[in-house]
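Q: Ubiquitin carboxyl-terminal hydrolase, please. Structure only.
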Amino acid sequence: MEPHRWLPLEANPDVTNQFLKQLGIHPDWQFVDVYGMEPELLSMVPRPVCAVLLLFPITEKYETFRTEEEERIKAKGQDVKSSVYFMKQTINNACGTIGLIHAIANNRDKMNFVVIVLAVFTTMLIAASDGRKPFPINHGETSDDSFLEDAIEVCKKFMERDPEELRFNAIALSAA
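A: Structure for Ubiquitin carboxyl-terminal hydrolase:
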């Protein structure tokens, strides 16, 4: 008998928006494609934006960076607001679902719930939440006005660490 498998959540706004609907999220917030990291392409993303999900490949370069980053933070510490919701991923292929839960949970004050699903909070801190890590990563303060651009700068660092890699995709949770 095969073990149970988690079906990955496709990084596609149509799929993620249907998932949001099934979770009871009112459609006044929707995921949209981020077509590129340049300012003219970011201007196509409806505002405000409260979350950006980056799909990226797990490569040897990323694993090396992840290990070094964890060791550095464990040694030096970091400030992460207690209101940041973080759930460690323990199931293979659940990164999309965990990322979506982080996006909702960290923006509950902005969401209109048709059904209350999660009890969570808000933050104006960019906290990267790779569920495979033991904790969220503080990438600094932001604001409603600059969140998308600030989050994209963090995404660009992922891409710069592995410049030969092309398998990146970003979607943004924005006001519909």
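A: Brief note, in case it's useful. Strands lie at 29-34, 49-55, 125-128, 137-141, 169-175.
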